[in-house]
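ok here's AraC family transcriptional regulator:
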Amino acid sequence: MDQAVAKNLKGFLQELGYPFDSISALLDSGNMTRYFNSKWLKSSHSFAILDQKATDEQLLACSDVSNIYQFVPPYFAALSSKNGLQAIERLSSYEQLIGPIEIGTFKEGEKLRVHISYLDDSRKNSRFSLLVDQISLISLLRTGTGKLIKPLSIGSKFNYGKKITEYLGLSSQSCHDNYLVFSKSNLLKPFLTQNDIMWNFMEPGLKKYISDLKVDPPFKAIVQNTLFKLIAGGNFQLKDVANALEISPRTVQRWLKNEGTSYKEQVNEVQKILALNLLQDATLNTAEVSFLVGFNNVTTFYKAFKRWTGKTVLKYRHQMIINKNSINAAS
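and the structure:
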Protein backbone atom coordinates (compact mmCIF):
# COMPACT_ATOMS: atom_id res chain seq x y z
CA MET A 1 0.00 0.00 0.00
CA ASP A 2 1.54 3.36 -0.97
CA GLN A 3 1.55 6.42 1.27
CA ALA A 4 -1.35 8.07 -0.59
CA VAL A 5 -3.64 5.08 -0.01
CA ALA A 6 -2.55 4.85 3.63
CA LYS A 7 -3.32 8.55 4.07
CA ASN A 8 -6.76 8.12 2.50
CA LEU A 9 -7.47 5.16 4.77
CA LYS A 10 -6.44 7.10 7.83
CA GLY A 11 -8.68 9.97 6.76
CA PHE A 12 -11.62 7.63 6.26
CA LEU A 13 -11.22 6.13 9.72
CA GLN A 14 -10.84 9.53 11.35
CA GLU A 15 -14.00 10.75 9.63
CA LEU A 16 -15.82 7.88 11.31
CA GLY A 17 -14.60 9.14 14.66
CA TYR A 18 -12.69 5.90 15.10
CA PRO A 19 -11.05 5.53 18.52
CA PHE A 20 -7.58 5.22 17.06
CA ASP A 21 -6.51 8.30 18.99
CA SER A 22 -6.51 5.91 21.93
CA ILE A 23 -4.14 3.59 20.07
CA SER A 24 -1.38 5.96 19.05
CA ALA A 25 0.75 3.18 17.55
CA LEU A 26 -1.91 2.63 14.93
CA LEU A 27 -1.93 6.20 13.75
CA ASP A 28 1.35 6.09 11.89
CA SER A 29 0.82 4.91 8.33
CA GLY A 30 3.22 1.99 8.70
CA ASN A 31 1.15 0.33 11.40
CA MET A 32 -2.10 1.28 9.68
CA THR A 33 -0.79 -0.46 6.58
CA ARG A 34 -0.06 -3.60 8.53
CA TYR A 35 -3.64 -3.87 9.71
CA PHE A 36 -5.32 -3.39 6.35
CA ASN A 37 -2.76 -4.89 3.99
CA SER A 38 -0.21 -7.66 4.14
CA LYS A 39 0.87 -7.78 7.80
CA TRP A 40 -0.87 -8.85 10.94
CA LEU A 41 -1.56 -6.61 13.88
CA LYS A 42 -1.01 -8.89 16.85
CA SER A 43 -1.58 -6.43 19.68
CA SER A 44 -4.28 -7.80 21.95
CA HIS A 45 -4.24 -4.41 23.69
CA SER A 46 -5.33 -2.72 20.46
CA PHE A 47 -8.25 -5.08 19.93
CA ALA A 48 -9.28 -4.67 23.56
CA ILE A 49 -9.53 -0.91 23.07
CA LEU A 50 -11.48 -1.32 19.84
CA ASP A 51 -13.88 -3.65 21.63
CA GLN A 52 -14.38 -1.09 24.39
CA LYS A 53 -14.60 2.14 22.42
CA ALA A 54 -15.76 1.48 18.85
CA THR A 55 -19.52 1.97 18.52
CA ASP A 56 -21.72 -0.37 16.50
CA GLU A 57 -22.25 2.45 13.97
CA GLN A 58 -18.48 2.68 13.49
CA LEU A 59 -18.20 -1.10 13.29
CA LEU A 60 -20.85 -1.20 10.55
CA ALA A 61 -19.17 1.60 8.61
CA CYS A 62 -15.82 -0.18 8.75
CA SER A 63 -17.53 -3.38 7.53
CA ASP A 64 -18.98 -1.63 4.47
CA VAL A 65 -17.00 -3.13 1.60
CA SER A 66 -17.89 -0.21 -0.66
CA ASN A 67 -15.87 1.96 1.76
CA ILE A 68 -12.85 -0.29 2.26
CA TYR A 69 -12.34 -2.50 -0.82
CA GLN A 70 -9.85 -0.07 -2.36
CA PHE A 71 -7.68 -0.41 0.77
CA VAL A 72 -7.94 -4.20 1.04
CA PRO A 73 -6.79 -6.21 -2.01
CA PRO A 74 -8.56 -9.50 -1.03
CA TYR A 75 -11.92 -7.70 -1.06
CA PHE A 76 -11.08 -5.99 -4.35
CA ALA A 77 -10.32 -9.43 -5.80
CA ALA A 78 -13.50 -10.92 -4.34
CA LEU A 79 -15.63 -8.14 -5.86
CA SER A 80 -14.16 -9.01 -9.27
CA SER A 81 -15.72 -12.50 -9.01
CA LYS A 82 -18.61 -13.76 -11.13
CA ASN A 83 -20.79 -14.53 -8.08
CA GLY A 84 -20.81 -14.98 -4.32
CA LEU A 85 -19.56 -18.55 -4.36
CA GLN A 86 -16.45 -17.55 -6.25
CA ALA A 87 -16.05 -14.45 -4.08
CA ILE A 88 -16.04 -16.50 -0.86
CA GLU A 89 -13.53 -18.91 -2.41
CA ARG A 90 -11.19 -16.06 -3.33
CA LEU A 91 -11.60 -14.35 0.02
CA SER A 92 -10.80 -17.57 1.88
CA SER A 93 -7.66 -17.99 -0.24
CA TYR A 94 -6.31 -14.50 0.47
CA GLU A 95 -7.91 -13.51 3.79
CA GLN A 96 -4.58 -14.07 5.54
CA LEU A 97 -3.31 -10.93 3.84
CA ILE A 98 -5.67 -9.08 6.19
CA GLY A 99 -5.16 -11.10 9.34
CA PRO A 100 -4.57 -14.51 10.94
CA ILE A 101 -7.86 -15.96 9.73
CA GLU A 102 -8.97 -19.28 8.28
CA ILE A 103 -12.29 -19.56 6.41
CA GLY A 104 -13.86 -22.98 5.91
CA THR A 105 -17.01 -23.82 3.96
CA PHE A 106 -19.49 -26.66 4.46
CA LYS A 107 -22.21 -27.59 1.97
CA GLU A 108 -25.66 -28.35 3.40
CA GLY A 109 -27.83 -29.28 0.43
CA GLU A 110 -28.96 -25.94 -1.00
CA LYS A 111 -27.09 -24.01 1.69
CA LEU A 112 -23.47 -23.08 2.29
CA ARG A 113 -22.10 -22.69 5.81
CA VAL A 114 -19.09 -20.41 6.22
CA HIS A 115 -16.92 -20.99 9.29
CA ILE A 116 -14.43 -18.36 10.51
CA SER A 117 -11.59 -19.30 12.84
CA TYR A 118 -8.68 -17.25 14.15
CA LEU A 119 -5.10 -18.29 14.56
CA ASP A 120 -4.31 -15.89 17.42
CA ASP A 121 -6.00 -15.20 20.75
CA SER A 122 -6.24 -11.42 20.28
CA ARG A 123 -8.73 -11.87 17.45
CA LYS A 124 -10.31 -15.02 18.81
CA ASN A 125 -11.54 -13.05 21.82
CA SER A 126 -12.40 -9.83 19.99
CA ARG A 127 -16.03 -8.96 19.26
CA PHE A 128 -14.89 -6.12 16.99
CA SER A 129 -12.72 -8.39 14.86
CA LEU A 130 -15.26 -11.18 14.43
CA LEU A 131 -18.26 -8.97 13.69
CA VAL A 132 -16.30 -6.91 11.15
CA ASP A 133 -15.28 -10.12 9.37
CA GLN A 134 -18.82 -11.53 9.36
CA ILE A 135 -20.54 -8.30 8.34
CA SER A 136 -17.92 -7.52 5.69
CA LEU A 137 -18.76 -10.84 4.03
CA ILE A 138 -22.45 -9.92 3.91
CA SER A 139 -21.55 -6.45 2.63
CA LEU A 140 -19.37 -8.04 -0.04
CA LEU A 141 -22.34 -10.03 -1.37
CA ARG A 142 -24.64 -7.02 -1.26
CA THR A 143 -22.12 -4.77 -2.96
CA GLY A 144 -21.34 -7.34 -5.65
CA THR A 145 -24.94 -8.20 -6.51
CA GLY A 146 -26.59 -4.86 -5.79
CA LYS A 147 -29.21 -6.83 -3.82
CA LEU A 148 -30.10 -7.04 -0.14
CA ILE A 149 -28.57 -10.47 0.45
CA LYS A 150 -29.31 -11.82 3.93
CA PRO A 151 -27.75 -14.83 5.60
CA LEU A 152 -30.11 -17.59 6.62
CA SER A 153 -28.36 -17.78 9.97
CA ILE A 154 -25.43 -16.16 11.76
CA GLY A 155 -23.86 -16.87 15.11
CA SER A 156 -20.99 -16.49 17.56
CA LYS A 157 -20.50 -16.06 21.30
CA PHE A 158 -20.83 -12.27 21.01
CA ASN A 159 -23.75 -9.87 21.34
CA TYR A 160 -24.67 -8.25 18.01
CA GLY A 161 -26.61 -5.21 19.20
CA LYS A 162 -29.80 -3.67 17.86
CA LYS A 163 -28.30 -1.70 14.95
CA ILE A 164 -26.28 -4.68 13.76
CA THR A 165 -29.31 -6.96 14.01
CA GLU A 166 -31.27 -4.46 11.89
CA TYR A 167 -28.49 -4.52 9.30
CA LEU A 168 -28.43 -8.31 9.24
CA GLY A 169 -32.19 -8.61 8.94
CA LEU A 170 -32.34 -11.49 11.43
CA SER A 171 -31.46 -12.38 15.01
CA SER A 172 -28.10 -14.00 15.70
CA GLN A 173 -27.58 -17.35 17.39
CA SER A 174 -25.48 -17.74 20.52
CA CYS A 175 -23.00 -20.55 19.96
CA HIS A 176 -19.39 -21.65 20.30
CA ASP A 177 -18.65 -21.29 16.59
CA ASN A 178 -18.31 -18.26 14.29
CA TYR A 179 -20.47 -18.97 11.29
CA LEU A 180 -22.82 -17.70 8.60
CA VAL A 181 -25.22 -19.71 6.44
CA PHE A 182 -26.30 -18.57 2.97
CA SER A 183 -28.64 -20.04 0.39
CA LYS A 184 -26.79 -21.18 -2.72
CA SER A 185 -29.36 -19.40 -4.88
CA ASN A 186 -28.24 -16.09 -3.37
CA LEU A 187 -24.57 -17.00 -3.75
CA LEU A 188 -25.11 -17.79 -7.44
CA LYS A 189 -26.56 -14.37 -8.21
CA PRO A 190 -24.23 -12.64 -10.70
CA PHE A 191 -21.92 -9.89 -9.48
CA LEU A 192 -22.40 -6.55 -11.19
CA THR A 193 -18.80 -5.84 -10.20
CA GLN A 194 -17.32 -8.82 -12.08
CA ASN A 195 -14.04 -7.80 -13.67
CA ASP A 196 -11.94 -10.58 -15.21
CA ILE A 197 -9.33 -8.14 -16.45
CA MET A 198 -8.75 -6.79 -12.93
CA TRP A 199 -8.66 -10.31 -11.48
CA ASN A 200 -6.10 -11.48 -14.05
CA PHE A 201 -4.04 -8.44 -13.17
CA MET A 202 -4.28 -8.94 -9.40
CA GLU A 203 -3.99 -12.72 -9.04
CA PRO A 204 -0.20 -13.01 -9.55
CA GLY A 205 0.40 -10.22 -7.03
CA LEU A 206 -1.88 -11.76 -4.43
CA LYS A 207 -0.15 -15.11 -4.79
CA LYS A 208 3.20 -13.41 -4.34
CA TYR A 209 1.99 -11.55 -1.24
CA ILE A 210 0.80 -14.82 0.29
CA SER A 211 4.15 -16.42 -0.49
CA ASP A 212 6.07 -13.45 0.94
CA LEU A 213 3.97 -13.45 4.09
CA LYS A 214 5.56 -16.78 4.97
CA VAL A 215 2.95 -17.68 7.54
CA ASP A 216 2.50 -21.29 8.55
CA PRO A 217 -0.92 -21.57 10.21
CA PRO A 218 -1.34 -24.40 12.71
CA PHE A 219 -1.65 -27.62 10.76
CA LYS A 220 -4.75 -28.57 12.75
CA ALA A 221 -6.49 -25.44 11.36
CA ILE A 222 -5.75 -26.63 7.84
CA VAL A 223 -7.03 -30.12 8.65
CA GLN A 224 -10.21 -28.71 10.22
CA ASN A 225 -11.03 -26.56 7.20
CA THR A 226 -10.41 -29.54 4.91
CA LEU A 227 -12.78 -31.59 7.03
CA PHE A 228 -15.46 -28.89 6.76
CA LYS A 229 -15.39 -29.40 3.01
CA LEU A 230 -15.24 -33.21 3.07
CA ILE A 231 -17.62 -34.25 5.84
CA ALA A 232 -20.75 -33.27 3.93
CA GLY A 233 -19.75 -35.65 1.13
CA GLY A 234 -19.22 -38.54 3.54
CA ASN A 235 -15.60 -39.14 2.49
CA PHE A 236 -13.48 -37.82 5.34
CA GLN A 237 -11.22 -40.68 6.31
CA LEU A 238 -7.58 -39.92 7.01
CA LYS A 239 -6.64 -40.93 3.47
CA ASP A 240 -9.24 -38.52 2.05
CA VAL A 241 -7.81 -35.56 3.94
CA ALA A 242 -4.27 -36.61 3.02
CA ASN A 243 -5.23 -36.77 -0.66
CA ALA A 244 -6.87 -33.34 -0.47
CA LEU A 245 -3.69 -31.89 1.09
CA GLU A 246 -1.46 -33.86 -1.31
CA ILE A 247 0.59 -35.42 1.47
CA SER A 248 0.73 -38.92 2.94
CA PRO A 249 -1.60 -40.10 5.73
CA ARG A 250 1.47 -40.76 7.87
CA THR A 251 2.58 -37.14 7.42
CA VAL A 252 -0.87 -35.89 8.49
CA GLN A 253 -0.66 -37.98 11.64
CA ARG A 254 2.91 -36.92 12.40
CA TRP A 255 2.28 -33.19 11.96
CA LEU A 256 -0.86 -33.34 14.10
CA LYS A 257 1.06 -35.24 16.78
CA ASN A 258 3.69 -32.48 16.75
CA GLU A 259 0.89 -30.05 17.66
CA GLY A 260 -0.31 -32.26 20.50
CA THR A 261 -3.43 -33.58 18.81
CA SER A 262 -4.60 -36.41 16.56
CA TYR A 263 -6.71 -36.91 13.46
CA LYS A 264 -9.53 -38.45 15.51
CA GLU A 265 -9.58 -35.43 17.83
CA GLN A 266 -9.83 -33.04 14.87
CA VAL A 267 -12.70 -35.02 13.32
CA ASN A 268 -14.52 -34.91 16.66
CA GLU A 269 -13.94 -31.16 16.96
CA VAL A 270 -15.33 -30.39 13.52
CA GLN A 271 -18.29 -32.75 13.99
CA LYS A 272 -19.03 -31.08 17.33
CA ILE A 273 -18.92 -27.58 15.82
CA LEU A 274 -21.22 -28.60 12.99
CA ALA A 275 -23.63 -30.45 15.28
CA LEU A 276 -23.95 -27.54 17.72
CA ASN A 277 -24.92 -25.23 14.89
CA LEU A 278 -27.02 -27.54 12.72
CA LEU A 279 -29.15 -28.53 15.70
CA GLN A 280 -30.23 -24.89 15.94
CA ASP A 281 -31.89 -25.22 12.53
CA ALA A 282 -35.51 -26.13 13.25
CA THR A 283 -35.98 -27.34 9.66
CA LEU A 284 -33.54 -30.23 10.25
CA ASN A 285 -34.47 -33.26 12.32
CA THR A 286 -31.86 -35.04 14.40
CA ALA A 287 -31.41 -37.86 11.88
CA GLU A 288 -30.63 -35.33 9.15
CA VAL A 289 -28.12 -33.52 11.38
CA SER A 290 -26.53 -36.85 12.27
CA PHE A 291 -26.07 -37.67 8.58
CA LEU A 292 -24.75 -34.20 7.70
CA VAL A 293 -22.01 -34.38 10.32
CA GLY A 294 -20.87 -37.80 9.16
CA PHE A 295 -22.70 -40.36 11.31
CA ASN A 296 -24.43 -43.34 9.72
CA ASN A 297 -26.21 -44.23 12.93
CA VAL A 298 -28.34 -41.80 14.98
CA THR A 299 -27.71 -43.70 18.21
CA THR A 300 -23.96 -43.29 17.76
CA PHE A 301 -24.51 -39.57 17.17
CA TYR A 302 -26.56 -39.28 20.38
CA LYS A 303 -23.72 -40.87 22.37
CA ALA A 304 -21.08 -38.68 20.73
CA PHE A 305 -23.07 -35.51 21.40
CA LYS A 306 -23.52 -36.41 25.06
CA ARG A 307 -19.78 -37.05 25.29
CA TRP A 308 -18.96 -33.69 23.65
CA THR A 309 -21.36 -31.52 25.60
CA GLY A 310 -22.58 -33.41 28.64
CA LYS A 311 -26.14 -32.79 27.35
CA THR A 312 -28.64 -34.81 25.40
CA VAL A 313 -29.60 -33.59 21.94
CA LEU A 314 -33.16 -32.95 23.14
CA LYS A 315 -32.03 -30.83 26.10
CA TYR A 316 -29.68 -28.84 23.88
CA ARG A 317 -32.41 -28.11 21.31
CA HIS A 318 -34.83 -27.04 24.04
CA GLN A 319 -32.21 -24.66 25.46
CA MET A 320 -31.64 -23.17 22.01
CA ILE A 321 -35.38 -22.49 21.65
CA ILE A 322 -35.44 -20.74 25.04
CA ASN A 323 -32.38 -18.65 24.14
CA LYS A 324 -33.84 -17.67 20.77
CA ASN A 325 -37.13 -16.62 22.34
CA SER A 326 -35.24 -14.55 24.91
CA ILE A 327 -33.27 -12.77 22.18
CA ASN A 328 -36.42 -12.09 20.15
CA ALA A 329 -38.21 -10.75 23.22
CA ALA A 330 -35.30 -8.43 24.03
CA SER A 331 -35.19 -7.05 20.49
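+1. The chain has two domains: 56-199, 218-330.
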